[in-house]
Amino acid sequence: MNTLIVYFSWSGNTEKIAKDIAKKTGGELFRLERQIPYSKDYNTCAYVEAKEEIDKKIRPDEETSSGCQPVRQDHPGIPDLVVYIPNAGVDIP
């Protein structure tokens, strides 16, 4: 494996694109997940839960993401790293 695609997806749109990237590159997928899933209601998710995370600078927990090992910048087996997350005009984690 030469490419690791790290992604976060609430609605499935980002996941679809990440899977397409993996298919085209032969890369491995690594899904970041929230310990407590976001509300299925968009307004609650975006304007309450996600806003609180942004305000408090809360980041995803590596230990609960896809059961994979934490990703390190110096990982010798992964020369290419693609990070794909939705960004609706907010700070990138």
Detailed description of the structure:
The protein has 2 helices and 3 strands. The protein has 93 residues and is an alpha/beta fold. Strands 2-1-3 form a 3-stranded parallel beta sheet, with helices on one face. The longest helix has 15 residues, at 42-56. Residues 64-71 have low confidence and may be disordered.
Pick out the low-confidence regions: 64-71
Radius of gyration: 14 Å
User: Helical content, roughly?
Assistant: 25-40%
Compute the average pLDDT. Answer: 75
User: How large a portion of the residues is in β-strands, by DSSP E?
Assistant: 15-25%
Enumerate how many helices there are, as a single number.
2
Whole-Å distance between the termini? 25 Å
Order of helices and strands: EHEHE
Properties at a glance:
single chain, 93 residues, alpha/beta, three-stranded parallel β-sheet, 2 helices, 3 strands, elongated
